[in-house]
Specification:
329 residues, alpha/beta, Rossmann fold, five-stranded parallel beta sheet, 13 helices
Length: 329
C-alpha cells in the first residue's frame, strides 16, 4: 500500500538540478543496508544527470563512512557533521535555511532518523517546500512505508500474529508493546522489558522462555521482531537471541519483518538475512510508524492537503491507533 501523498524520487525529474540528500551515515561498517540505500540514491541521481549532488547526515559511530564514499564518488559531496551544530537537534529554522541555500531538490533517504524532529528531517524540507522547491523520499524510504503498511494489513487479517520484542531501550519498547498488544495475537517480551523471564545472570532469557517463544513462533502466520533477547554478543548469553531468530527464519509459512540495529546485526551474525520478508533499517522509526502511521519526516514532506488527510485517515484505520496524530503546518 503506497501513501499516494508521499512524493517519491521516482516522481520527480532532477536532471540539471542541484540535489541535497538526507542520508543515513551513522553506521558501523561500509556494508550496511543504510549505506546501500545511500549508494543506490547517489547512483540513481548521477544516472539522471543532476548538476550538483550532496549527501548530509550525522555520525555518532567510529566508522568514517564518508571517507569511503568520497573515494567511491569523487564528484559527490558527503558531510556527516550535522549534529555538530546545535541547530540540528533544536530543529532550528536558521540552521535549516543555511542547509537549504543553493539546492533545488531535497530527498529524504534517512528513514531510520525520520522519527526525530531535527532540522534536516523537519525544518529543512518544510522550508524548501514553502519556497516551491521539490521535496521527496528516496526509494528505500518509500519501500519501508509500503512494507510496514503491508505488515499491518497482514496483522489485521489474522490472530495468529506474534510480536517478539526485546533489547535495552525499555521505555520505548514497553510503550510499543502496550500500544500493539490488542493488535497481535501474542506479545513475547525479552531483553530487559518488564515481564520477561531471564537467566540468573540477567543476560539472556531463560531456557523455559526460549522454548515457549519458539513454540509460539512456529504457530504464527505473521511475525514482527524488534530487539534482541539478551546480550547476544556474549557467547554465553546468545542462546535466546539465536534460537528465537532461527525459529522465526525457519517458519516458512509466516510473513516475517524485523527492525532495529541490534537485531539487524544479530541476523547478519547468524547468516539469516535472506530468510526474512523485510528488514527495516529503523528501530525507533519503525516502531513509531507502526504505532501512528506517520513520522515527522513524512509530515514535513507532504503538508496538510486533502489527499494527505484522506491518506492519514486510511493509515489511522490501518494502524488502528487512538493516539492523536501531530498537527501538520
Amino acid at each position: 500500500m503506497r501513501d499516494k501523498s508521499l512524493r517519491s524520487i521516482r516522481d520527480v525529474d532532477p536532471a540539471s538540478k542541484s540535489v541535497l540528500v538526507r542520508g543515513d551515515l551513522d553506521v558501523d561498517d561500509g556494508e550496511n543496508p543504510r549505506i546501500e540505500s545511500v549508494r543506490a540514491v547517489v547512483n540513481q541521481l548521477l544516472n539522471l544527470s543532476v548538476d550538483q549532488l550532496k549527501v548530509i547526515g550525522h555520525r555518532e559511530t567510529a566508522f568514517p563512512i564518508c571517507e569511503q564514499l568520497r573515494r567511491e564518488y569523487p564528484n559527490v559531496e558527503f558531510d556527516d557533521r550535522l549534529r555538530e551544530d546545535p541547530g540540528e537537534k533544536a530543529n532550528s529554522e536558521e540552521f535549516a535555511a543555511r542547509l537549504a541555500e543553493g539546492w533545488d531538490v531535497y530527498v529524504n533517504e534517512a528513514f531510520a532518523t525520520s522519527h526525530r524532529k531535527h532540522a534536516s528531517i523537519d525544518a529543512l524540507p518544510r522550508l524548501m517546500r514553502g519556497r516551491g522547491k521539490v521535496v521527496c523520499v528516496g526509494e528505500r524510504f518509500e519501500k519501508e512505508v509500503e512494507m510496514l503498511n503491508e505488515l499491518m494489513i497482514k496483522v489485521n487479517s489474522t490472530r495468529k500474529s506474534v510480536l517478539v520484542i526485546g533489547g535495552v531501550k525499555v521505555e520505548e519498547k514497553e510503550r510499543f508493546a502496550e500500544t500493539m498488544k490488542d493488535k497481535f495475537g501474542k506479545v513475547l517480551k525479552g531483553g530487559l522489558l518488564p515481564g520477561g523471564k531471564l537467566r540468573p545472570d540477567g543476560l539472556d532469557i531463560s531456557d523455559e522462555e526460549v522454548k515457549r517463544f519458539v513454540m509460539e513462533i512456529e504457530r504464527a502466520e505473521v511475525i514482527l521482531a524488534a530487539g534482541v533477547m539478551g546480550k547476544y554478543e556474549d557467547p554465553n548469553a546468545e542462546r535466546g537471541t539465536e534460537e528465537v531468530l532461527a525459529a522465526i527464519a525457519n517458519n516458512n509459512q509466516a510473513y516475517k519483518v524485523v527492525g532495529g540495529g541490534d537485531i539487524e546485526m544479530a541476523i547478519s551474525k547468524y547468516a539469516l538475512t535472506s530468510k526474512f520478508d523485510w528488514i527495516s533499517v529503523g528501530g525507533g522509526a519503525m516502531l513509531q510508524y507502526l504505532s501512528t502511521g506517520t513520522l515527522p519526516g513524512i509530515e514535513a514532506l507532504v503538508g496538510r492537503t486533502e489527499l494527505y488527510i484522506e491518506e492519514m485517515n486510511t493509515l489511522r484505520e490501518l494502524h488502528h491507533n487512538s493516539a492523536i496524530l501531530p498537527v501538520v503546518d
